[in-house]
Amino acid sequence: MLSLHPVSERDVVALRRFEIDNRAFFESHINARPPAYYDAGGIEAAVVTALREAAADIGHQYLIREADGELVGRINLSHVRRRHFHSCELGYRIAERANGRGHAKEAVKLVLAKAFNELGLVRIEAKARAGNLGSLKVLRHNGFTEFGRSMRSFQLHDEWEDMLHFERRAPGR
């Protein structure tokens, strides 16, 4: 069983360990964060930014924890747009050691409940590389519908990739 926790200053040590331990794994699937992110003060600055964005209701970052409290992932609702849209974009990453155990599916389900109930959002968008079968499965499992494809729109490791675009609406909307 997983739980979601808003990122806080108490999480800096665990978050640094999570990001460094999984850096090579993440960078094999997504573009690298700037090197300064991993330098002294980088994680702290990212947490301060996350707290500022949450207070301004423009982004909400959560840590994904197992029942024993172990940090196994992150899930974000970014680019929150209230006026006229009440929407955001979904992003997530799961630790290498926790991959393939259904954590992404469960975390997306949990964050959808937060987005639609607590945050009052109406529509959530997500993107995934056409070749990222795991993420495509997670999104479809959680009721996301594909609404478009952008051809050769994302560069990863010097290769251009197609992106698939998804949306999920709040129940009854």
How does this structure look, described?
The model has no long low-confidence stretch (mean pLDDT 93). The protein is built from five helices and seven strands, in the order βαααβββαβαββ. It starts with a strand and ends with a strand. It is of the alpha+beta class and 173 residues long. Helix content is 31%, strand content 35%. It has a single domain (2-169), classed as 3-Layer(aba) Sandwich (Aminopeptidase). A seven-stranded mixed sheet has the order 1-2-3-4-5-7-6, with helices on both faces. The longest helix has 16 residues, at 103-118.
Characteristics:
7-stranded mixed beta sheet, 173 residues, Aminopeptidase, 5 helices
Average predicted confidence as pLDDT: 93
Q: Give the CATH superfamily.
A: Gcn5-related N-acetyltransferase (GNAT)
* CATH class category label: Alpha Beta
- CATH fold-level topology: Aminopeptidase
Sheet with most strands: strand arrangement: 1-2-3-4-5-7-6
Q: Which percent range describes the beta-strand content?
A: 35-45%
Distance between the termini: 29 Å
Number of domains: 1
Number-wise, the strands total 7
- Low-confidence runs: none
How many helices? The count is 5
How many whole angstroms does the radius of gyration measure? 16 Å
